[in-house]
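User: I'm writing a short report section on ligand binding and want a predicted complex to refer to. Could you take this sequence and magnesium ion and write out the structure as tokens? A short remark afterwards would be nice.
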Amino acid sequence: MFEILSDKLSGIFRKLSSRGRLSEKDIDDALRQVRLALLEADVNFRVVKDFTPRVRERSIGAEVLQSLTPAQQIIKIVNEELTATLGGGESRLVSSARPPSVAMLVGLQGSGKTTTAAKLALHLRHSGQRPLLVAADNRRPAAIEQLVTLGKQLDIPVYSEAPSAKSKDICAHALTKAKELATTWVVVDTAGRLHIDETMMAELAEVKQVLKPGEVLLVVDAMTGQDAVRAAEEFHSRVGLTGLILTKMDGDARGGAALSIRWVSGVPIKFIGIGEKVDAFEPFHPDRLASRILGMGDILTFIEKAEATFDEQQAKQLEKKLRTASFDLDDFLSQLRTVKKMGPVAQLAEMLPGMSSLTRQLPEGIEEERLKKIEAIILSMTPEERHNPGIIDGSRRHRIAQGSGTKPQDINQLLNQFRQMQKLIKMGIGGKLPRNIMGMFK
Ligand SMILES: Nc1nc2c(ncn2[C@@H]2O[C@H](COP(=O)(O)OP(=O)(O)OP(=O)(O)O)[C@@H](O)[C@H]2O)c(=O)[nH]1
Ligand SMILES: [Mg+2]
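Assistant: Sure. The structure tokens for the complex follow:
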């Protein structure tokens, strides 16, 4: 998601930064292109109509910072306004003073409610809470089964009843159960419909009255574009929402819905779903998404993930190496191994500056097979070669190929890839403009 928009915006800003002083016309030209890029990315026209004038006004106005070039100032403004459009700061779950806190998940059919209920419960448990899942979707027996199975997998209790039971009764009983089990959170999965209709809304209102939830979260499929935005407006006016969870943010939609939904509905995005697995779920950070879209990568999220996977010191070292772009093939290997531990290469690489364009060049299925080959090749090199791949000549290449059971072309390919990665990282972090940007948003 966001690749095309991100590429377009980086292109616009690169052109802008090649100029010294910027005239009003330069700014207007650039903003016209930004406007087009946003519209092409399916951003809601109301958002676009509001966004560019905001940026223009601040850009033309005398917001002069001595340390920045004019182009950098505009990028800074675009970044800030994009962050504001996405909601400004992080919007956390609100827990109630008297446990259990209740989160009721609502949404259209197939938006990801059941999966998200499990993801949210797991997230809560990771933050030290004791969640109870409730299967209040009695429209399909399979829905109950789906949640029960997920609960078993995660070892999180699920409250369910026979499909004949009424949703509001299930919910009332679930609250009693929660008290019995002394759980701190109750996460309720409700039934979805293909379309928003009266019966659905009436049912949700009934369930809401029983649960008195502190959080009513609309689960929306980010792949459905402006339909998702309309659903958010509608649900908010009919049921009253406290937050949004955008799912399928790992998809290849243009991302306009994700960019517009907060601004149009006025409801904060609290979490995003980024894959089918139960841990593919994170709190939403507007500032990080904004800088990711502007092609600055997302060092922060990356470091957070790295920290969760190994210890802080290792993560710091990795960050330093990435920042100074001084990493060699040994680091490349250990990074690939880490990436393997942390999740799909593509997903992670998107968070690194300049890396998303690299992963797009990689063939599908790089994960397992390629990683094994790369590992074998690097392990067949001497420490000196790993540190300084420049010394690898024809005869060394031959030796490494034999040692790793690969062909000399494979070695070349790897070295090219490695050099390209170094270059991209330099451009992304070590390069003049982006480095300033990184410093600017620290
Ligand atoms: N790629 C991706 N798939 C997701 C994500 N969240 C949910 N899905 C998939 O979306 C499909 C529908 O998910 P469900 O959780 O069953 O959706 P639901 O809203 O409960 O559906 P109904 O109960 O039928 O209304 C499943 O195949 C999920 O694996 C996500 O963040 N990324
Ligand atoms: Mg469901």
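A remark for your report: The pocket of magnesium ion (ligand 2) is lined by residues 113-114, 137, 143, 189 (CB under 6 Å). Strands lie at 101-106, 131-135, 158-159, 185-189, 215-221, 243-247, 269-273, 281-283.
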